[in-house]
Design goal:
Layout (H helix, E strand, L loop, with lengths): L16 E3 L4 E4 L8 E5 L4 E9 L5 E7 L4 E6 L16
């Protein structure tokens, strides 16, 4: 995966959830250099769709708002339990 846009059509493969440990940027792809679409305040509750490992070996989780709206990629170090446990399938 690379930087994309804020819309990534996919299924929800993970049943987990967690909270942000600090203000967390939401990105269009699983890299810090990808565009930021939002910032989640520390303590924001999110649900997880799946995770991926980028080319640098860092894990990122696709998150949703508590109401179910798809948000985007968050670096797993900013999620209180390390993020999703279900790996995103490769397309």
């Amino acid at each position: 995966m690379t930087c994309g846009n804020a819309y990534w059509p996919h299924e929800k493969w993970d049943t987990g959830s967690g909270r942000t440990t600090t203000e967390a940027a939401v990105h269009t792809g699983p890299y810090g250099a990808c565009s930021v679409t939002a910032y989640l305040p520390a303590g924001t509750y999110v649900t997880y769709d799946c995770y991926t490992v980028n080319d640098y070996g860092n894990t990122w989780t696709w998150v949703r708002a508590s109401g179910g709206a798809s948000i985007g990629w968050v670096y797993d170090a900013y999620l209180d339990n390390g993020g999703a446990t279900a790996l995103c399938p490769k397309y």
